[in-house]
Amino acid sequence: MKNLLLLTLAISPAFLCSCAHSPAKAYHLTSPDTLVIESNGENDERILQPQASGRITDDEVFNAARQLPQHQTAVVILENYNEKQLGADFHNRGTLLFMGLRNLGYKDIYFLRGQGSATPEGLTTLAEYH
Fold first, then answer.
1. Whole-angstrom distance between the N-terminal and C-terminal Cα of the chain?
2. Where would you tag: which of 41, 61, 84, 115 has the fewest CB atoms within 10 A of its CB?
3. Bigger pLDDT: 116 or 79?
4. Contact call for residues 81 and 126 (beta carbons, < 8 A)
5. Domain hosting residue 31, numbered range
6. Are 39 and 97 in contact (CB under 8 A)?
7. Distance between CA atoms of residues 37 and 118, nearest Å
8. 80 by DSSP, 3-state: which?
């Protein structure tokens, strides 16, 4: 099992590059059941929706997400993200969140550029996976 996890993590950067659509468009929230996560860096997350949390770790995000009745759409707001194109910072911050959310059954995952807002409405979409 550990070898499978290591292999998955090893190939995930290539997967993230090949599957991402990188439209430069504003995101518009479609459902109040959407899981919205604010990411401030490694292992420093906060759930904004459907029920807000304080600062929590990645594992706590996944445990909370597992308990939700809907596993359709997840939105990750990357705060303090400064790359002009998807690069090393995106992969370092997004890989674990992407893999964890996908393994929980989330079908649509969006990564947005944060601007200090507690809502994803109108934020720039960095990548989306369907």
1. 26
2. 84
3. 79
4. yes
5. 2-129
6. yes
7. 10
8. coil
